[in-house]
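Now for one record.
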Amino acid sequence: MKTPTIGLCGLALVLGGALAAALPVAAIAADRQAYGNRLETPYKAAPADEINVSGQLHAGIVAYEQGNYSEAFRLFRNISALGVTEAHFRLGMMYAEGIGTRKSPRQAAYWLKLAAGKNYPGATEMLATINAAENAGMQANFGGF
């Protein structure tokens, strides 16, 4: 019986595959050595009861008033996930005006709807303004149809 041969190209493929498989292992080992067990521990968000919501809301308002819009947006976005109605309203306004983020009437409407659903002052009116502007823009773009 004849023993199979793989030839030079086949040997290169086999060795290349083994080398490619070994590289990620070596890279992971080097990262573990450099960064310790932090790579093995998945990120876990703090429980909602450990987050100082009013402190983050206040910090967001202060950042906004000082003109640090990206920081204000980040803070409002973080606490909006916890259902903070004022953060929903402020995010809606920032999206509507394009402050601290790109202008997005769709995102503005989303956040303002959440705030309006909880009767936040001014949210319903702002949502109506955005919807009217969107409708007027569509009529202008499509010749009134």
